[in-house]
Specification:
The chain has 327 residues and is α/β, with parallel strands linked by helices. Helices cover 45% and strands 14% of the residues. It has a domain at 13-215: Alpha-Beta Barrel (TIM Barrel). The protein has 15 helices and 10 strands. The longest helix is centred in the C-terminal third of the chain and has 22 residues, at 305-326. It starts with a helix and ends with a helix.
Length: 327
């Protein structure tokens, strides 16, 4: 496959692993990159500069191929503005291939100088957005690409609530930098569809949880296989931090607090990051908000990252050939 993303990073496939707190660590990151795509190392997993720098170097011991680093700039109890600056400084010093910025854009969060520092270091900058207006701002600020995140995605979609089917072509027709589709991508059909909509690549997160290399309890992987596309819910809308998670007992509790007007103070004990980390490790599928997208309805097995990506590309080609045969 040859797209603006494969050309920009020198990779085989325009398939990127999305950020996942506690899961996107060196093993999974390297597995995705070794399989021909772009792995992801989520900076928020690391509390200190030493830990974060060591994680980058561990990843490079496992793969000699490029990978992305995610820095999410959203309200957090444990990750401060100083953490954000530290992550960016280390990424520039280590000359990582690319950065996925989620939340507040860099120029507004930490200052224009960080964009200049990162670009001088050769780091490609992508901003994950849910609207055309935010994509336009990112392009003007000097970003190298856009992640167009539809409402289907897990994690924190923008509360504009625009679907992938509409968002990808709207952003692709508006900006001149490459667009990566996020939300609802899990198989060859959805990869082919994203390319047809104008994307130069796709980003998947939920799909990569259900792979052999993802270091999460098998109960979680089996739960993903069992779930249907309608079994997710949007939570934390009342505090301006909308997120999509699989429906479970904890999500029911969160929605109940929100329905009665409970604010951040009552929600924090339910959505705290350490609670999520414990659930990933224990396999208790009811004890934390598992931030996953509607693409769970398309996931039916647990392959290796290599098997998954080779299948996605082969199936996408077959679907593209089939559609071309109609005309």
């Amino acid at each position: 496959m040859k797209t603006a993303i494969t050309e920009m990073f020198g990779v085989q496939y325009p398939i990127i692993c999305g950020a996942m707190m506690w899961l996107c660590k060196p093993t999974l990151c390297a597995a995705v990159s070794n399989a021909g795509g772009l792995g992801n190392l989520t900076a928020g997993n690391y509390a200190t500069e030493e830990e974060f720098r060591e994680a980058i170097r561990q990843t490079r011991q496992l793969t000699d191929r490029p990978f992305m680093v995610n820095v999410t700039i959203l309200p957090s109890v444990h990750i401060t503005a100083e953490h954000h600056k530290m992550y960016l400084k280390v990424c520039a010093e280590e000359k990582v291939a690319g950065l996925e910025i989620s939340g507040t854009p860099l120029d507004k969060a930490v200052g224009r100088e960080f964009i200049d520092i990162l670009k001088k270091a050769g780091v490609k900058l992508f901003h994950k957005v849910g609207s055309v207006r935010h994509a336009v701002h990112a392009e003007k600020a000097g970003y190298d690409g856009i992640y167009a995140a539809g409402i289907e995605e897990g994690g924190h979609p923008l509360d504009d609530d625009v679907t992938t089917m509409v968002l990808t072509p709207r952003i692709a027709e508006t900006v001149k930098i490459p667009v990566v589709t996020v939300g609802g991508i899990a198989d060859g059909r959805t990869l082919a569809a994203a390319l047809a909509l104008g994307a130069q690549g796709v980003m998947m997160a939920t799909r990569f949880v259900a792979t052999k290399e993802c270091e999460v309890h098998d109960n979680i992987k089996q739960e993903i296989i069992r779930r249907q596309e309608f079994e997710t819910a949007l939570i934390c809308k009342s505090i301006g931090l909308q997120g999509r998670a699989i429906k479970n007992k904890l999500v029911e509790d969160v929605l109940a607090v929100e329905a009665t007007g409970g604010g951040l103070e009552k929600l924090i004990p339910l959505i705290a990051g350490n609670r999520v980390k414990a659930a990933w490790e224990s396999g208790n599928v009811d004890d934390a908000p598992m931030m996953m997208g509607q693409s769970v309805g398309l996931i039916r097995d647990i392959p290796t990252c290599k098997e998954l990506m080779e299948r996605l590309v082969a199936d996408a080609k077959e679907d593209i050939d089939r559609v071309q045969g109609i005309f």
